[in-house]
């Protein structure tokens, strides 16, 4: 069985930063102060880690209760903020997911720093929700590798998972670290907040400017699943 773990933001889609409206509004409701999320580099951080960084930037002690309140309120406001910008599904994503959906022996899951509510809002808005039966999401401000471990456990509950047939598709060094934590291969794409040069420094299994075409992607994972897990290497499309 080949298992694919997909990141969302910068990998499957871009909201064109529409989520910033929900975040800034949630901060204002909770603190009575204005905050501009765009002043903080957040690519690859989980929603909870972004909340911690937000409060630290504002000089507010980020206790667990306050962090959870912010993340929960952001999730409630997000569906209303997504239409405020013209985001899009990234190149080849929908075609790849449709192709994989028709194949037996392949399962796709989410592995994301979004909460379950945030992920559902984004995937529903962009018409991708039906391709993912489940996934692993941010549940606290802990290390992202913990999300990867939960994702692997989820996949194993559904059936046998071979080491060489596990892939993480993402756009940040954090996704590459997630893959390393579960001995998976990373397919890194420079469609988010990091350049391909920045991604290569972290030695993903493969690195592309954007996701390959469906035919190329299928050849990539089919070939990778037949290999033994070994030293990672990169390849630019």
**Total helical segments:** 9
Approximately how much helix is present in the residues? Answer: 40-55%
Radius of gyration: 17 Å
What number of structural domains do the residues give?
2
**N- to C-terminal distance:** 26 Å
Architecture of the largest domain, CATH level 2?
3-Layer(aba) Sandwich
CATH fold group of the largest domain: Rossmann fold
Largest sheet: 6 strands, parallel
Percent in strands: 5-15%
Please list the strands of the largest sheet in the order they lie side by side. Answer: 5-4-1-6-7-8
**In CATH, what is the homologous superfamily of the largest domain?**
HAD superfamily/HAD-like
Q: What does this protein structure show overall?
A:
With 237 residues, the protein is α/β, with parallel strands linked by helices. The chain folds into two domains: 2-15 and 87-225, HAD superfamily/HAD-like (Rossmann fold), CATH 3.40.50; 19-84. Helix content is 43%, strand content 13%. The protein contains nine helices and eight strands. The protein has helices spanning 19-31, 47-57, 64-81, 93-101, 116-125, 144-158, 173-181, 196-200, 214-225, and strands at 2-6, 13-14, 88-89, 106-111, 135-136, 166-170, 185-189, 206-208. The relative contact order is 0.18.
């Amino acid at each position: 069985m080949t298992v694919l773990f997909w990141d969302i933001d910068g990998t499957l889609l871009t909201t064109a930063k529409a989520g910033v409206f929900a975040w800034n509004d949630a901060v204002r409701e909770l603190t009575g102060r204005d905050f501009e999320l765009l002043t903080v580099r957040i690519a690859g951080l989980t929603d909870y880690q972004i909340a911690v960084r937000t409060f630290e930037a504002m000089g507010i002690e980020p206790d667990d209760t306050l962090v959870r309140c912010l993340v929960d309120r952001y999730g409630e406001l997000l569906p209303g903020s997504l239409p405020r910008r013209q985001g899009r599904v990234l190149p080849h994503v929908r075609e790849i997911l449709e192709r994989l959906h028709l194949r037996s022996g392949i399962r796709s899951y989410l592995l994301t720093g979004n909460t379950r509510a945030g992920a559902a809002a984004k995937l529903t808005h962009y018409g991708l929700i039906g391709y993912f039966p489940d996934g692993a999401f941010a549940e606290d401000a802990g290390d992202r590798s913990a999300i990867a471990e939960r994702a692997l456990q989820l996949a194993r509950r559904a059936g046998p998972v071979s080491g060489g047939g596990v892939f993480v598709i993402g756009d940040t060094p954090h996704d590459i670290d997630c893959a390393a934590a579960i001995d998976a291969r990373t397919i890194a794409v420079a469609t988010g907040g990091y350049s391909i040069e920045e991604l290569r420094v972290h030695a993903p299994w493969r690195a592309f400017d954007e996701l390959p075409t469906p035919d190329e992607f299928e050849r990539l994972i089919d070939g990778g699943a037949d290999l033994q897990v070994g030293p990672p290497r990169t390849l630019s499309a």
